[in-house]
Amino acid sequence: MRRFGLVLLATTALSGCHMPGQPQPGPEVPRPEAVMSFAQLYGENCSGCHGADGRNGSAMELANPLYLAIIDDAALRNIITNGEKGTLMPGFGNAAGGNLTDEQVNALVSGMRAKWAKPNVLSGMTAPAWKASHPGDATRGAAVYAQACARCHGNTPQKPGPAGSILDGSFLALVNDQTIRTIVIAGRDDIGQPDWRNVMPGRALTDAEITDLSVWLIAQTPPHPGHPYPGTQPLAPHTR
Amino acid sequence: MPWYRRTYDWLERRLQLEGPIKDAVLHPVPKSTASWWYVFGSASAVLLVLQVVTGILLALVYSPSASHAWNILQVLNQQVPLGWFLRAMHGWGSNFMVAVVVIHMAQVFLFGAYKFPRELTWIIGVFLLLLTLGMAFTGQVLRFDQDAYWGLAIGASILGRVPWIGGQLVHLMLGGPIINGATLTRFFALHVFILPGTLLVLTVLHVWMVVKLGINEWPMPGRLVRRETYIQEYNELAHKDGLPFFPGAAWKDAYFAAAILLAVAICAAIFGPYGPTGTPDPTVINTVPRPDPPFLWIYTVLSYLPPEMETPFLLIVPPIAIAVLLGLPFVAGVGEKSWWRRPVAVFTVMFLAVCWASFTHLATSTPWSPKMNAWSGSPIPTAFLEHRTPLERQGANVFQEKQCRNCHSIGGSGGERGPALDDVATRLTEDQLIRQVLLGGGNMPAYGSTLSPPETTALVRFLNTLHPNYQPAASDASRAVAEQGGVPPASTVEPGNGQHKTQ
Which residue has the higher pLDDT, B245 or B271? Predict the structure, then answer.
């Protein structure tokens, strides 16, 4: 009788309960294009630069409600698929030689919104548009820099402020005006970079000021950025 | 007389099996063989039976067709009640069988049991080992997943290196020039008919000889094997200081076999079946195929061999190894059996065991292989980005985007092909970092043509921050000298007696 009980126990244990070795539903390794989980897509493709939870990465903070509020889905899709020219953001879409299908890019965009967007973050405010609407004036941008940025980033690359220089030639060569515009508007609360309302003491920056500032900053890129001996001429291409 | 007794007598009068079976079961064996060291052979046979039974059950469902095999395993895993457990028992049974067969072989070798008159038992045992490995490999192919596909590709490319007939051998193995449906059918026939058929016949022969020649007595230092006297000495030992095989020695075999079966079942329940991993589609390139446990050591050896050594190694070493195993009882067929007086034998087994364990361990982490998605999937630890300048942050972006991370780990994640860079700034100065990045060297490719000057500058600025706070970055003493016009700075160290500089 006891033996019968043991057999019964073993059979129920095997068939009824979930043993740790029992496979999960679905294939163990799905085809790469069949992966649709935001956590997995983000973890494998984005977290390297944008941080584990969209924060504290080396590149732009994506878990930033302000950022997600000013940028629309089409622009996000375009950046993920094709990359951002003039910056280190590569294209991840199949068309740009990456691994992600259009559906996976959509899953990333909607996942970012579902996880990190806050619907009322801009209520009662008119934030500057994500994209600049006019060319901008570099001369006026210099004044904006002196008022809004120089406190933390310094007046010259040789004399950087406490937050490090953004006038450094190599830095400017690795970003574009949209990078600067995005970070000035949305800020990065994970590393203490204020948003457009708090950069300038006393008032928020205007759309025009931000446009002028980004044009002026990019115009500060030296002709041969990152060259260790700026006084010398670089080698002609055929002598390399 | 009850009915079952009458049935038995009717059968026995015609079959006449009682006598031989009684002889085999009750034959006297030396008392010293009733040892826990002598249980591995019978355990191998029990595992073979387990594999046959679970294999037949799997064959009731399996379909050796390239378009169905993978899906059938999904059905077994997900829909057939306990189908996953059956697959897991067969998979883990295979691992245990290879392990127990190898342990049995090592024990036989160390106990000198291959010596006269058991040379042929050993030789057949060598073939049984090869067949067991063949079963493990062909079984992995029947899973027909990414591991199977690339395992086949490796197998085919090894065969293809055979001079003159390599191409024909590959054609024979794959059933065509490429891995296709015919390949799977071919391996199904090998795994289900040819190899197990041979395995069973040779196992019967192997056991027959064990029964006929007697179980090897416990080796005693100084008791030498001589062709002229051994049989007589063994029979004396078995009869004077012996006991019937059943139940005298057999109960230990039974207990051990039961324990092994339980271990297989526990592993099956906890770790589950092997795969199937992704579909066997060569267009899926982001996959990390890996052989099953018995072949992990080969994976390591082949990965570490320099390319020019691969073909000679693959074509010369296996035949030599098999020839050594087969020739062993002819070279050392008599003499000392005890491991106390065979230091070379003991050292060989220990050496091979250590090599096997190290290679297998290395194959689980594959440090020779870049981690192809580390650049986009392994975040830079927050501590390495705190209080960094905008340029240094861009340098971290370069580090990831140019896939440095795939070979260099920081914060414990990333590739292991190159050194970890957590404290690289304590080892290299800024100038040395620039040189290393641009020109490579020490097994690292040169990145000078793929990095722009701003990217290099940013990257090196970031790398230059990678040192613990309590340790200063490496510095170039000659820089300070050069900046002061070639005059060395005044030394801060007090000179000792007799060390005063003469100006």
Answer: B271
Is B242 a residue whose pLDDT tops 90? no
Q: For an interface test with B, give the residue of A12, A28, A183 to mutate (most B CBs within 10 A).
A: A28
> Quick check: B393 contacting A, CB < 8 Å?
yes
A20, A88, A226: residue with CB nearest B457: A226
Task: Flag whether pLDDT at A10 surpasses 90.
Answer: no
Q: Which DSSP category does B311 fall into?
A: H
Confidence (pTM): 0.86
- Pairwise CA distance, residues B198 & B129, whole Å: 12
Domains, chain A, with CATH or none = 34-116 (1.10.760.10), 138-219 (1.10.760.10)
Residue B30's DSSP bridge partners are B242
- Which residues, other chains included, contact B297 with Cβ-Cβ below 8 Å and sequence gap of 6+? B355, B356, B359, B360, B363
B423 vs A30, A37, A127, A189, B414, CA distance in Å?
A: 38, 35, 43, 28, 15
**Which architecture does CATH list for B374-481?**
Orthogonal Bundle (1.10)
User: In 3-state terms, what secondary structure has residue B242?
Assistant: strand
- The structure tokens listed for B149 are 């596909």
Contacts of B275 in chain A (CB under 8 A): 28-29
Q: What single letter denotes the amino acid at residue B441?
A: G
B488: nearest Cα among B497, B499, B501: B501
Inter-chain CB proximity B269 and A19 less than 8 Å: yes
Contact A225 B453 (CB under 8 A): yes
- Contact criterion met (CB below 8 Å) for A196 and A127: yes
| Residues of chain B contacting residue A170, judged by C-beta atoms under 8 Å apart | 391, 394, 453-455, 457-458, 461
- B452: contact with A, CB 8 A cutoff: yes
pLDDT for residue A232:
63
Could you please state the CATH topology (level 3) that the domain comprising B20-365 is classified under. Answer: Cytochrome Bc1 Complex; Chain C (1.20.810)
**Domain range annotation of chain B:** 20-365, 374-481
CB contact under 8 A, A46 and B376: yes
Of the candidates B434, B396, B456, B432, which has an alpha carbon nearest to the alpha carbon of residue A169?
A: B456
- Whether the per-residue pLDDT at B288 is higher than 90: the answer is no
Residue A239 has pLDDT above 90, yes or no: no
Cβ(B460)–Cβ(B447) below 8 Å: no
Chain A within 8 Å of B394 (Cβ-Cβ)?
yes
Task: Give the pair of three-digit tokens for residue B199.
Answer: 């395995």
Structure tokens at B301: 């050896």
Quote the minimal CA–CA distance from A123 to chain B in Å. Answer: 31
Residues with Cβ within 8 Å of A51's Cβ and at least 6 positions away in sequence, in order, are A57, A61, A62, A63, A190, B379, B382
CB nearest B377 (choices: A32, A45, A59)? A45
Give the closest residue to B385 by CA, choosing from A60, A155, A91. A60
> How far A137 CA lies from chain B's nearest CA (Å)?
24
For residue range B427-456, list pLDDT tens digits in order: 999 999 999 999 998 889 999 999 999 999
> Inter-chain contact A164–B392, Cβ cutoff 8 Å?
yes
| Shortest CA gap A23–chain B (Å) | 6
Tokens representing B25 are 């079961």
Instruction: Judge whether B108 and B143 are in contact, CB under 8 Å.
Output: no
Contact between B275 and A165 using a beta-carbon 8 Å cutoff: no
Number of other CB atoms surrounding residue B46 within 10 Å: 21
For residues A40 and A53, give the distance between their C-alpha atoms in angstroms, rounded to a whole number.
Answer: 12
B377 interfaces chain A, CB cutoff of 8 Å: yes
